[in-house]
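User: Can you help me understand a structure? I only have the sequence.
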Amino acid sequence: MSRARNEPRQGLTTTSYAVLAQLALRPWSTYELARQRIRYFRYVWPRAESAIYREVKRLAAMGLVMATREYVGKRPRTIYSITEAGRRVLRAWLATPVSPFAMDFEAMIRLFIAPLGTKEQIIASLEQVRTDAREMLRFGGSVKQEFLDGRAALQDQVYIRALAVDFFVSLLNTVDSWAERTLAEIAGWEDLFPDGKNERGLEIMAQVPAPTPREHTDRTPVPPRTQRRRRSSGSKSGRITSP
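Assistant: Let's start by predicting it. Here is the structure, written out as tokens:
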């Protein structure tokens, strides 16, 4: 037995657990794993397909997944399945605190620095956001119908997948609605300078549906402690860490 199989399960990242999670449901080929990532995980854990292929092989070397060679006609392919050691590692991870909420949304960075560019540029970015959201909503509708027709690859997991699809569709509808409102607002601007716009900005801020402090304070708001937890995949050791 190799040293990698004997040592503690260190060096695992969220990508590792995402792969193990998929293999805990059923065996997959690396191609099928990549396709499932595109359908679901890429929206909450975006990683290149090549990273998935490397990760599966790494997990196999650690004894957390097992590779089986099979043939489809004369064409060979490798199917990966989770081992009992992999299940133990996955169960242990489920007992750790979840990483804090985060978003990977490039359009927001472009909005923050919009005055450095042109009105046409920020409008083009927002129109792309709206188009992307609507395309993904159509895809979400197709996934919904696939489950309703009883032909999804993971039909037996519909009780879990329905909750995930509900989250994705709710988020996409929020993004679509926000992009539409923001485009309408910016369309009325002659330029991107603050002159004459900050009063309207305060009106929009007042309508934001977020609770404000009950008592007045002059202190600068500080992100909650939950947002200062270390991320499980960001530590150098790769181990899950506590708050």
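Now, to help you interpret it: The first strand starts at residue 28 and ends at 29. The two ends are 35 Å apart (CA to CA). Let me know which part you'd like to focus on.
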